[in-house]
Each structure stands twice: as C-alpha cells, then as structure tokens.
TrEMBL record:
It comes from the Bacteria. Keywords: Glycosyltransferase, Transferase. InterPro entries: Glyco_trans_9, LPS_LOS_Heptosyltrfase. This is Glycosyltransferase family 9 protein. It comes from Polluticaenibacter yanchengensis. Gene3D superfamilies: Glycogen Phosphorylase B. The keyword Cell membrane does not apply.
Length: 334
C-alpha cells in the first residue's frame, strides 16, 4: 500500500505527526510511506526510518500536484487540512483521510473564551484519522531523529562545566507573545543554580548574550551556533528542558525529557501540551501558566504584540516556582 501523509509546517506540528508515520509504516502490510512538507521544514524529518520518500511543497502548486498524481497513492492522510490540501485532493484524487482540526472550537476559545475543545491532544486526533485503516496507537509517543554527523560532543563544543549535566532553556518562539521578555528570562537564569544551555535561532543570539551575562561561567549561549539537528542533540543530552510553546518543547518530549512548558498567548487548552504517549504513566512535565487570565489563550499560534496591551501571561510568570522545580528535577536526576 502506497501512503502519502501531508503536514506542511511547522516544527512542532510535524513532530506531532510522527506517531502516525511510525504506526502506519509498522502496522500496514507492505506500506510505502511518503510525506509532503514545506522545504523549510524538511529537516525535521531527516533520518526518520519510517519514511520512504519525502516530497516538498514547491512554489508551483501545479508541479507539486502533477508529481504527486504520478505516484498513484492508495491512501492520502491529510494532517494539515487547509485550502491547499483541499486543492490537492481535487487535483490528485485517491482515498483521503483527515483529522479533526477543531478550527471552529479554536476560534471560539481564542476570540470569545468559550471552550468547546474536545480535550483530545492533536497527536491523538491525528492517530484517529488512520483508525479506518486499522491502524492503532502504539502508545510510544513522538519521534525525532539525529544523524551521527549532528551529534554534539558536549565537552568539546560547550566545555567541561556542562559535561556532567545542564538544563536546556529554549528562549525563542515563532511569535513574540509566546516568549518571556528577555529581562524575565535573565532573572530565571539567575535563579537556576546549575549549568544552563540557551537554545534558539540566530535571531535570539543577542538576547541570549544578555541572559548569559548573569552567570557567564555556567550559562552557554548556543543560539544560532548549531543547526536544527545539532540543537536537538543539545536538548537530547540535557537533564531537563524549559521551553516556550515551540518545536523544541516537543523534541524534548520525543526524547522523554522532563519539560517545564511556559505558556503565553497559546495554552494547553488548545490541546497541544507536552505529549509522551499513553505508555508513559505520569509523564514528567509541568505547565507554567499565569492563573485566572480570561484572555488566555488569545491565539492559535501567537501574535506580534499582546492584544490587551498588558502581556500578563508572561509578565506574571512565577519565576520562583519555575526555577525551584528546575533545580529540584536537576538534583533528582543526578
């Protein structure tokens, strides 16, 4: 059976599809699994042993559709579900399955504070899409793969201070309202007693330099110094991970790392909290949320500025609670 799975973006959402990829490949006889993704996010799936062929959504929709039509797929699993995937459905035909995106429910929640969400994680809803094929959840959670060339040697790349363990702090996010302001992150770093590695893109480098100044001997600025897979290697080797709502939060989950998730414009109410799979009982994570905010979540993805102008969801984060928990978990991991 020839199967195409579609998820164009972004890092976290693609990682959420990995249980579907694995279960389809392992449970459908002779399954040949293809995946369609944007070029920008192709690297998220590099090395995934359950994918036989990666396809890239090109600038020309017609060329992409024509190329996919030639593959003659038996089944297409739409885990993006937008206008472009509907156009693809019309263009290439075949037997299609899609997940419950809960678009109306998200709109009601973020615009009016009316919570009609199912409470079912997006990963589980994605797995539900392949139930008609006889595919079931294996309970093993998310996948992320790092090839040998991108494994980071901590002692050589970061220094001996970090060899015996560190806390990875992911300081970036796709939108400003999903990130704690730099002064808050600086205070958090000061409250953490153990070595810290700051994870982020090159755009976060300058902010990370400011954060690292509070204790340069035990804080390493890795922002922009490593590629995606190498940064994933840093997450994999951390004792625990503190992260905003970003792809690295879910990479940490794929490696079964304890996670402290810091929530701003988005929220676990959108059914996107840390996910470890049903086989993990009492998964090791904590959602750090400012209580009592009627305006949260205000967006599915985050915004450039706080719609209310106060940014209380991040300005009022309990840094003492976050740092105390991080210090405790680090000590317990020794």
């Amino acid at each position: 059976m020839k199967v195409l799975i579609i998820r164009f973006s972004s890092i976290g959402d693609i990682i959420f599809t990995t249980p579907v990829i694995r279960c389809v490949k392992q449970q459908l006889p002779d399954a040949e699994v293809h995946f369609l993704v944007k070029q920008k996010f192709k690297g998220v799936l590099n090395g995934n042993p359950y994918i036989d062929k990666l396809h890239v959504l090109g600038e020309s929709f017609k060329e992409t559709a024509d190329a996919l039509k030639k593959e003659k797929f038996d089944v297409i699993i739409d885990l993006h579900k937008n206008l472009r995937t509907f156009r693809l459905k019309a263009a290439i035909g075949g037997k299609w399955f899609s997940y419950n995106k809960e678009s109306v429910e998200k709109f009601l929640l973020t615009k009016f504070g009316i919570n009609k969400m199912s409470g079912e994680h997006i990963t589980q809803r994605s797995l539900n899409a392949v139930k008609p094929l006889g595919v079931t959840d294996d309970g093993l959670g998310l996948d992320y793969y790092i090839d040998d060339n991108n494994q980071v040697d901590i002692s050589k790349s970061l220094g001996l201070v970090f060899r015996d363990g560190y806390i990875a702090v992911v300081i970036g996010a796709s939108f400003a309202t999903k990130k704690m302001p730099t002064p808050k992150l600086q205070k958090l770093a000061a409250l953490i007693k153990y070595p810290v590695v700051l994870i982020g893109a090159k755009e976060e480098f300058d902010d990370a330099e400011i954060i690292a100044r509070v204790a340069p001997q035990r804080i390493f600025n890795a922002c922009g110094k490593f590629n995606l897979q190498q940064s994933g290697s840093l997450v994999k080797q951390a004792r625990l991970v503190i992260s905003h709502d970003t792809g690295f939060q879910y990479i940490a989950c794929a490696f079964q790392k304890p996670v402290i998730a810091i929530w701003g414009a988005t929220s676990p109410k959108l059914d996107v909290e840390p996910y470890y799979g049903s086989s993990i009982k009492n998964p090791p994570y904590y959602n750090s949320i400012v209580p009592g905010l009627k305006c949260q979540p205000c967006s599915n993805y985050g915004t450039k500025t706080c719609p209310q102008g106060h940014f209380n969801c991040m300005e009022h984060q309990d840094l003492d609670r976050i740092s105390a928990l991080a210090n405790k978990w680090f000590e317990e991991s020794k």
